[in-house]
Amino acid sequence: MSRDAFDPLLERAHAHARAFLQDLPQRFVGARAGRDELIAALDSPLAAQGEDPAAVIDLLAGHAGRGASACASPRYFGFVIGGSLPVALAADWLVSTWDQNAGIHAISPITAAMEEVAARWLLELFDLPRGSGVGFVTGCQMAHFTCLAAARHGVLRRAEWDVEADGLAGAPRIHVVASEEAHITLDVALRYLGLGTRSLVRVEADDQGRMRAERLAEVLATLRGPTIVCAQAGNVNTGAFDPLPQIGELARAHGAWLHVDGAFGLWARASEDHRALADGIELADSWATDAHKWLNVPYDSGVAIVRHAQDHRDAMTSAAAYLIQTHGAERDAVDWVPEFSRRARGIPVYATLRALGRDGVADLVDRCCARARQFAALLSAEPGISILNEVVLNQVLVRFGDDDALTRQVIAGVQEDGTCWASGTTWHGLAAMRISVSNWATSEQDVVASAGAMVRVFKQSTR
């Protein structure tokens, strides 16, 4: 294929992309096609000679309208999924075009430089210790893995055990303490790290999902040896924050490493109006968050931040004779993340932070929170619909008719209606609809239309 062959294919893909984006605000929000329809359309014997590239691009785009959910729609409220800001999408196209392996500075100086600056900007935006290590990973799952690997290294180093050289067999036992409301990604990270989930000590939470600090104090009083405490900034159901000042002080008094799951809640630090929710988060030793949530950059984009940069680096870094690794000021990303070969995912973060600035990020957070409060006000005004949580951030839990079956029926009906898309959950034994407002493009009118569809489906379901 000649270099000239790129032009018609890229123009074709660009046309399809423009059509998808232009249709996004008004299209049916869920996916219309299921597995059987898509396999029938996409499956075929692998041809010996291949097919025309233009036809392949048309095939992909032709089935996206039915097979892809409109996750980037301003009326998609499921799973804490943000959209992509125009500048972030444009930067991500450049990332794919440049096709840089972001592993080491010698391969891609531009990626290393942008990620170095983006890391510094994030620490300033979140007001976290400026010397912290920062790694750009796939998402909060791998951010937890990275941070907890650093925590494992750090607490065992203090116990004079080299986990990277000697492994966990025979190592001092590490106690891991977390809320009963901790996100499942924390459990998965513990599995990946060989710490296991049965060793996890659960701490009671209150009616909003906040860890009870007094119960944590009781638990820590029973533990001896290396300890990692895991707290939460932004409960995935309610948006509530653990009492971080008290938890931070308890962890420090016990000599424990404090890790915070701030998948979306850490971004509250960027907002003057919501920053107080995260007071005390600066006491932690590590933080995990997602940029593909509230910063609204394309998937995949997570961030791992570790106060103790040397523990972070020691847990992650690798070296080989064939590599050209820096010993100067340059940044080798392989020192901070589990992967070597990876896309330059820090570049859209850099571009978005530069385009938005501090005020733009704060406005993005504040607008989403305002739309969540608008949802709660509109829905709670309808008899038979109740809001189960204190709407402190961008999460709203809705129950219909105080009935599990009816609530699930309404959730399914809203998804089938297509005006918007919201997911279901179970909160303290009760079925609920979970609304997460995380998209930069969600307007007051989007909320009015979406709440109206929810009320309409609810009334239809009770006839």
From TrEMBL:
Listed cofactors: pyridoxal 5'-phosphate
Gene Ontology terms, MF aspect: carboxy-lyase activity; pyridoxal phosphate binding; transaminase activity
One annotated GO biological process: carboxylic acid metabolic process
Similarity comment text for this entry: Belongs to the group II decarboxylase family.
Designated name of the protein: Aspartate aminotransferase family protein
Gene source species: Agrilutibacter solisilvae
Swiss-Prot/TrEMBL keywords: Aminotransferase, Decarboxylase, Lyase, Pyridoxal phosphate, Transferase
Sites bearing N6-(pyridoxal phosphate)lysine, chain numbering: 293
InterPro entries cross-referenced by the UniProt entry: Aromatic_deC (IPR010977), PyrdxlP-dep_de-COase (IPR002129), PyrdxlP-dep_Trfase (IPR015424), PyrdxlP-dep_Trfase_major (IPR015421), PyrdxlP-dep_Trfase_small (IPR015422)
